[in-house]
Structure formats: structure tokens, C-alpha cells
Amino acid sequence: MAFERVTVVGAGAWGTALANVAARAGCGVTLIARDAAAAAAIGKTRQNPRLPGVMVERAIAVTSDKSAVAAADAVLMAVPAQAMRAGLGGLQAKPGTPVIACAKGIEQGSGLAMTEVIGALMPGALPGILSGPSFAADVGRGLPTAVTLALPDEALAADLGQALGLPTFRIYHTSDVRGVEIGGAAKNVFAIAAGMVTGRKLGASAAAALTTRGFAELVRFGRAFGARTETLMGLSGLGDLVLTCSSPQSRNFSYGMALAQGAPPAAKLAEGAFTASALVAKAKTKDVEMPIAAAVAAVLDGKLTVDAAIDGLLTRPFRAEGV
Fold first, then answer.
1. What is the pLDDT of residues 236-270, one digit of tens each?
2. Which of 7, 120, 152, 205 is least surrounded by CB atoms within 10 angstroms?
3. What is the pLDDT of residues 50-100, one digit of tens each?
4. What are phi and psi of 130, to 5 degrees?
């Protein structure tokens, strides 16, 4: 299937980086910004303040007109998870168009995954997800990155991945949509926990232990909800977890550090701050034990202090290792 025209909805750092990728891959690209003023500024200067130091490719058309979606062969939804529903409002795509979530999270209130939100609001679309260990600044600058694209039709995922992929932006494909979504959503919560460990200066050994046990929770959760183990072990699971649990470039890691250092951060840019309680609630429906995720949710809900959460984890009973 040919993907000559790609529309990216959301002109933040990630949306701009993905638009650059698609343009460099030879696609005709339209980038939809939230308002006309932002679109005009980006179009004129070919720069986005949210992605400093990266020029927006000249071939990219920048607009605030959502009608551009109707002509697209594929749509990349690069808006935050909690804004996905609003971002989809008013969009009309051709029947059978892949509409790809590029956000990592679970919708608060409904508990829906991003592809489920897309399916509910755009019933004629083919929902999919793009996820993996990637920072917008790296992708925008053309640094080597690898991600996973999931669609129920794996052949379609392969075709779209081929159309968007570059030597420096490798796209692996799968039909395990659920597994890719779970990896991306859950890792944000554990990145907050990793940031807390670093913010409290507990050392590299503690950080490694936290990341490893967080991965065990991610795998337990994923298996309970039908994800494939190989997906959770791949780029969109383990790979993304390692990246976001080890770098202040991660908004979720930085959020956890700020909490641990007593500086209340703005939650709007940390997807994990919204996902934690939804993740724990879904885990309870399957009796999945997730002590780290539960501790993060309790801190965010004001039920525990950071120190109390850490103490609670350190005093859990010893057990045999294994997922």
C-alpha cells in the first residue's frame, strides 16, 4: 500500500520530529498545529520553540486546518494521551486510513488505551500505535533511533513502516497492538519511580533494582492483558523502560526527581502522572500485583510521601526471583 500523503496532528516537539522523519522519507507531509498563529509562526520561521535547534523541513506544509486529514493516506496523532480524545474531535479520515497513536498512556476516567480512543471516535479508521525508546530531540536531529509500529494487520504495519522509515529511524513492525501500548504506558509510571530514587540519591544499584523490578511488573501486567512476551522484551517495552528510567531528558523521570526533591512539578507534561492510577486500577481487575506502580500512584494521589513509599517497597517480604 502506498503512503504518499501523511498528516501529523500535533505540532509539539514529538509531532514536529515525526513530521521531519516522514518528509525525509519522501512523503508529502502536513503538520497540523493547534491554532493558526502557531502554524503561521512555524511555517514562516521553519522553527518550533518546542524543538529548539531543529529546522522544520521545507517540504512540510504547516496549518491549523484539520480538514487536511481527509486527504491523508496515514495520520499520526502526536498529541498527549489525555488530549487524544479532544485532538480527534472534528477529524474526518478516509475509510480504512491508518490512524496511529504516537502518545503513551491510558485515558483517565475511561481506562481506555489510545487505539481504543481512536476506534471509538473514528470508527472507519484503522487504529495503530508507534512507540519505543525515542526522544523528540534525538529524532528531530536525525540521530539513530529504533521504534515499533503496531497495527492489527501486520502487512499494513510493514508497508507503513517502510514508507516512514529511515536508516536513522528504524521502524520494526508487529500486530501486537496491545503489547506495544502496555509497554509505552506502563514504563512512564516506572520512570517516575526511577526519578524518585535518583532524586533521593539512593545510588545506581537502587536505580538498577528499581528498573528491573518495574520491568517484572510490566511483564506481569502485559501477560494478564494478552500482550506477547517478545513485545514486552522489545523496543516498546524493555527498550523504552531502560531509556526513560535513566535520563533526565525523560519528562517522567524528571517529574519523579522533582517530587523527591520537594519541588512540585507541573504534571501536564508527564504522561505517567496521569496513567499511574489508571494502570493500578486496571491491574486490580486482573489481580496483578504491582507494588511499585501502586506506590507511585499513592504518592501522586497524596496518600504517601516519597520517603514512605520507598520505605514500603524496601520492607516488602523477601521472595523468589521471577516474573
1. 999 999 999 999 999 999 999 999 998 866 655 78
2. 205
3. 999 999 999 999 999 999 999 999 999 999 999 999 999 999 999 999 999
4. -115, 125
CB atoms within 10 A of CB 138: 17
Which amino acid would we find at residue 300? L
What is the rounded distance in angstroms from the CA atom of residue 285 to the CA atom of residue 9?
A: 33
Question: Is residue 155 located within the same domain as residue 219?
Answer: no
pTM over 0.90: yes
Total residue count of the chain as it appears in this document: 323
Instruction: Let me know whether 129 and 199 are in one domain.
Output: no
Q: Interhelix angle for 177-199 vs 114-121, to 10°?
A: 130
Count of beta carbons in the 10 Å neighbourhood of residue 121: 18
One domain, residues 35 and 21: yes
Terminal alpha carbon distance of the chain: 40
Same domain, 160 and 34: yes
Q: Other C-beta atoms within 10 Å of 323: how many?
A: 13
Instruction: Retrieve residue 99's grid coordinates.
Output: 490512524
144 with 186, same domain? Answer: no
Instruction: Cell 471509538: give the residue.
Output: 120
Residue 320 domain flag: no
CB neighbours of residue 316 within 10 Å: 9
- Catalytic pick from 94, 187, 201, 284? 187
CA angle, 57 then 59 then 63, to 5°: 90
Q: Is 268 a catalytic residue?
A: no
